[in-house]
Amino acid sequence: MKKFIILSLLLIITDRLAAQFRETQNIVIVTIDGSRWQEIFRGADSSIINSKYTTNKDAVLKKFWAQTPQERRKLLMPYMWSIISRRGQLYGNRDLGNKSEVTNMFGSSYPGYNEMFTGAPDWRINGNRAINNPNTNVLEYINQQEGFKKKVAVFASWELFPYIYNIKRSGLNVNAGYTNVDEIDINEHIKYLNDLQHKVPHTIGETRLDTMTFELGKAYLQQYKPRVIHFAFDETDEMGHQGKYDMYLKYLNQQDEYLRQLWEYIQTDPNYKDKTTLIVTCDHGRGDTSPWAWTEHSILIKNSIQTWMAIIGPDTPADGEITTSTTIYQKQLAQTIAKFLGIDFKANTDHAVADAIESARKPQAIIVGIANRDN
Ligand SMILES: [Zn+2]
Fold it and tell me: How far is the CA of 226 from the centre of ligand 1 (A)?
């Protein structure tokens, strides 16, 4: 009984500490479609560089090759491996025994995004058809909370995001594909970008160039100061399907540059500085059993469920690369986003929501600290 009372008291105290010490007021989420953990943690892959999927081998070697994986990944993603690796967390390096994965079996995009933002896999979402998502997502839930109304935005290259976030039901501000930012008081820069995106060549059908998605989203961030914004990039996946490894690497490198620019902006704007958490992840993995397997991902391609995740912000311990033999799941992202903002995400459609990734937030360290002292 005594133990029970002490434990209850500890829980009450840690709960208060968690609320007191939580500093995150805003969240920026970046998803890099179909980017593999293998490149994130090992850098460029020599077996694919030496295959028919790399046309300009010498240029790729010159730009991205080095002897060790540690050197190679830093050449590929310098922001990730200088800032996030020192001040944040990186999950999913299977070479160290740490895992990150989706729990849906499909290994493709819509099922992945559904899982990440609703907190659960759904067998009805089993491919990339344009159907309105029946499940409540965490961004729409946050958008309904006090202090967040109309302060949530999505900028996506892929035109399917209005379905994934079910804007018909959710009313979320989702700018996807070649869509203009449609606010009454847009500034000259956004007007220019609105116009420019229709003039540049559309290389992948209705899917917008990531550069346009990034620039429009960043301009929106600067003018409207949303508290939650999701940047959804696509070109890495597309280059995988097209079998262009040099372009896949180039785009990964470009995404890293976007991350750097976003983080630099965040840390210079008083609305965001030291109170914003950045989460970077992907929707699925790709094959890795042969150079060909890299081009694809699906229920039939081995290891398509393997993902990765990076987190940096004022509430996240600076553990760097996570080396524990544990697994995080993409379905935990929804509640993780909510908890960073002090919100408990409850889906009002009929599905369970997976728990948050506790190791991503400092209060857990306090709980563990107290519990250990008690022992
Ligand atoms: Zn794909």
Answer: 29
Please give the distance, rounded to the nearest whole angstrom, from the Cα atom of residue 107 to the centre of ligand 1.
Answer: 9
Indicate the domain borders of the chain: 25-362
Distance from the CA of 20 to the center of ligand 1, in angstroms?
42
Question: CA-CA distance, 70 to 96, in Å (whole number)?
Answer: 13
Phi, then psi, of 361 in degrees rounded to 5: -125, 140
For the chain, what percent of residues have pLDDT higher than 90? 87
**Ligand 1 centroid, distance to 267 Cα (angstroms):** 33
Cα of 98 from ligand 1 centre, angstroms = 24
In this predicted model, what pLDDT tens digit does every residue of 159-191 receive, in sequence order? 999 999 999 999 999 999 999 999 889 999 999
Fold for the domain defined by 25-362 = Alkaline Phosphatase, subunit A (3.40.720)
For the whole model, what pTM was predicted?
0.92
Residue 244, classed as helix, strand or coil, is coil
Give CA angle at 320 (362, 357), nearest 5°.
45
Give the Å distance between the CA of 33 and the centre of ligand 1: 7
Distance 32 CA to ligand 1 centre (A): 11
Residue 154: enclosing H or E segment and its boundaries?
strand 152-156
> What is the Cα–Cα distance from 58 to 67, expressed in whole angstroms?
15
